[in-house]
Amino acid sequence: MRSLSGGCVMDVMDRLAILADAAKYDVSCSSSGSNRAGKPGGLGNAYSAGICHTWTDDGRCVSLLKLLLTNDCVYDCAYCVNRRSNDRPRATFTPREVADLTVNFYRRNYIEGLFLSSGVRQSPDDTMLDLIRSVYILRDEYRFNGYIHAKTIPGSSPELIERLGRLVDRISVNIELPTEQSLSLLAPQKTKQSIFTPMRFISGRIEERAQEKRLALRAPRFAPAGQTTQLIVGATPETDRSILRLSEGLYGRLGLKRVYYSAYLPVNEGRNLPSLMTAPPLLREHRLYQADWLLRFYGFNVAEILDEREPSLDEELDPKTAWALRNMHIFPVNVNRADYEQILRIPGIGVKSARRIVVARRARRLRHEDLKRLGVVMKRAAHFLTCEGRMERRPSVSLGRLRFLLSGKPPVQQLLLPFGPLEGEGL
Amino acid sequence: MIYIYDGTWDGLMCLIYRTAEDGVVPEAILRNGAEKQGLLFESARVENNSNIAEATASLLRKRVSGPTWGDAWFALLSGDDGADMALWHLLERVWRRGRRAELDLADPCIDAVRRAARHTGGEYEKYLGVTRFKDVGGILYAQIEPGCDVLPLLAGHFSRRLTDRGWVLHDLRRARAAVCRGADWYVTDMDPSQAPRIGSGEQRYQDLWREFYRATTTRERLNYKVQRTHMPRKYWKHLVETPGELHGDSLASGGA
After folding, report:
1. Is A318 helix (H, G, I), strand (E, B) or coil?
2. Positive or negative: CA dihedral B53, B55, B58, B60
3. How many domains, in total, are found in chain A?
4. Mapped to the 3 state alphabet, what secondary structure does A1-19 carry?
5. CATH classification at residue A248
6. Which of A160, A400, B89, B142 could form a cystine bridge with B109, CB 3.0-4.6 A?
């Protein structure tokens, strides 16, 4: 047990409270993407779809034991609750304590595995070594085959990232701030390079591994569940468009599995930060996730969702419906004839129902009542599709009226602002 | 004709064989114990015969795709109203017309089987997460009360996962338990009053878990609705942690 400032030794319980609380600002929770059978004499396996074990009162799922190894940090990032200049209780786990907690929680089926991150003690490499030790004890000594997600520490050496990547399922570097200006403003000790260099290194290793696998060579695995990152939303003035363009690049060029968006919770006072009274922009975060889904599963690109004139997502409508309303000339789509890709673009139809439609229509001509059975949300979709060349609902007279029907909000904006929204005018 | 069978997979196979033999479409299919008094229709009880079951299954299996076969099994475990009848129609149709019949996803019977399978699948996935084992002196013990008969599915999962200890998974609702030592597991009858006492050291980890659960909650974003959408109250009873506390609705507080 490590003694803390003041010389008192804190119980595991107290340190768990501190280090779980300190880790909750990292919103990644998934335990998916790895499929690994258990081994005799070992403990655990990885279930590729991921498993949620509980939901906290904020409605978010708990899948992994999410902890910081320590909340001591030499950095002083303005947005971070653990920054050096904050007067907060500090605590540290030893690698063995982390391993012990993980195994005992896992065995009781509380968790799917471990998500370990850390504040930066002394140097990035020292911290990385402690992360590696924790994971090594789990994998080697406890023969733990469950899921492990580890964070790499910005500025640590590639050799250590390599070692960590071979032990864990998923590895991530948080970008946090979407632009270099914001980074230099709020996290002056970090640079764009210190973040993107390890990300590029990791994606390179994952790609190499994939190629080796194609050649059927037995190579040591490297983060089989891939790489993720997190962006803070609302701490800095970036638009939704610039955030999504960054995500698009990360998915495309670096092959990231997920980008997480975290509505900024004002935890610190600061000249360059929103005031402590600011509510976290939860709706904006939600819309970003919806748009992110469109990028990953629906074949959209950012240019279709947002442009320079309209760089923010519509708060009243989900981005897919908003896109459809801007592109009414494409609709209605005939579900009995259209391609899968076209059907997927109809609001109210998801990936599963689109797939079912293209199968089911081989057996019969689909009617409106069939679509409901296939999982289509007709309340929305009815405005955008036809079955037998007729629409269930008459095309709405105006876009404003349709907008109202789909968002549940009266079309005030249309009447007040015929020349587009004025700056600073919110509804 | 109304057919009554025992609700097992083998029973269903025998039932399909029997109806093929009789050359009839059943008026209804009931499970043992669920038959009503004074049936208006003629009824027949289907006896189980493992040879017939196996032969029927292997014949059917050749005509049914893997996913539909899995759906059929899950639908059977759901015990949903009408699922048995829908299953019969699905299997009979696939039997006659081959896999083409499976494509007709908009058909009410095929849809009913899919929904019943999804019911079981949903509960199974939920219990993969919310099942809580306790250390009862070297072995692990957990209680569940699922609506669908997911015990065999869960037992398979935990036998692949909890490989370093023996465990017992107790379905209180059906008074049955899956017991696992090493890699093999079996299902046996177990009275709900037979719950073992927890071992020493168990309380400590339960307390640690509750502390973690509290600490990892973000109080600025409380969202009761989303919490209950993902984890309805029926899953709370056997948890160690106490959901709903910050909403004034934990089970302990006796909320609505």
Report:
1. coil
2. negative
3. 2
4. CCECCCCCECCHHHHHHHH
5. 3.20.20
6. B89
CB atoms A17 and B215 under 8 Å: yes
Q: Which is nearest to A340 in space by CA: A357, A363, A323, A328?
A: A357
Residues A34, A328: Cα–Cα separation, whole Å: 41
Verify that A352 and A223 share a domain, yes or no: no
Calculate helix-pair angle for A282-297, A240-253, nearest 10 degrees: 40
Q: Which helix (H) or strand (E) holds B203?
A: helix B202-215
- According to DSSP, the residues that pair with A227 across neighbouring strands are A171
For chain B, which ranges sit under pLDDT 50? 255-256
B211 and A51 within 8 Å at the Cβ level: the answer is: no
**ipTM of the predicted structure?**
0.93
Q: Give the pLDDT confidence score for residue A394 in this predicted structure.
A: 57
Which residues on chain A are in Cβ contact (under 8 Å) with B212? 16-17, 20, 65, 105
Give yes or no for B221 touching A (CB within 8 A). yes
What pLDDT does B44 receive?
87
| Helix ranges restricted to H, A147-237 | 158-167, 180-186, 192-214
Distance of alpha carbon A227 from alpha carbon A224, whole angstroms: 9
Distance from CA of A326 to the nearest CA of B (A): 30
* Residues A50, A193 share a domain: yes
What are the residues facing A230 on neighbouring strands?
A260
Over residues A31-56, the pLDDT tens digits come to: 888 888 888 778 999 998 999 999 99
DSSP tag of A264? P
Residue A287 domain-assigned (yes or no): yes
Residues of chain A neighbouring B106 (CB-CB closer than 8 A): 360, 363-364, 366, 370-371, 373-374
Å from A24 to nearest chain B CA?
A: 5
- A417 versus A261: the higher-pLDDT residue is A261
The tokens describing B137, both together, are 């002196």
Q: Are residues A301 and A331 in the same domain?
A: no
B164 contacts A360? CB cut-off 8 A? no
Q: Does B217 touch chain A (CB under 8 A)?
A: yes
Residues A403, A297, single domain; the answer is no
Q: Are residues A247 and A341 in the same domain?
A: no
> Residues 49..68 of A with a Cβ closer than 8 Å to B: which?
49, 51-63, 65-66
- Mean pLDDT in chain A? 88
Is A191 part of a structural domain of the chain?
yes
Evaluate if residue A365 carries a pLDDT over 60.
yes
Q: Do B106 and A108 touch (CB under 8 A)?
A: no
Distance CA B152, CA B8 (A): 12
The SS3 of residue A227 is strand
- pLDDT tier at A327, thresholds 50, 70, 90: very high
**A423 is a domain residue:** no
Residue ranges making up the domain that contains A201: 12-267+280-305
Residues A329 and A255 occupy one common structural domain? no
Average pLDDT over residues A256-268: 93
Task: Give B-chain residues touching A55 at CB under 8 angstroms.
Answer: 226-227, 230-231, 243
Among A345-349, A383-387, B75-79, B125-129, whose mean pLDDT is lowest? A383-387
**The whole model's pTM is what?**
0.90
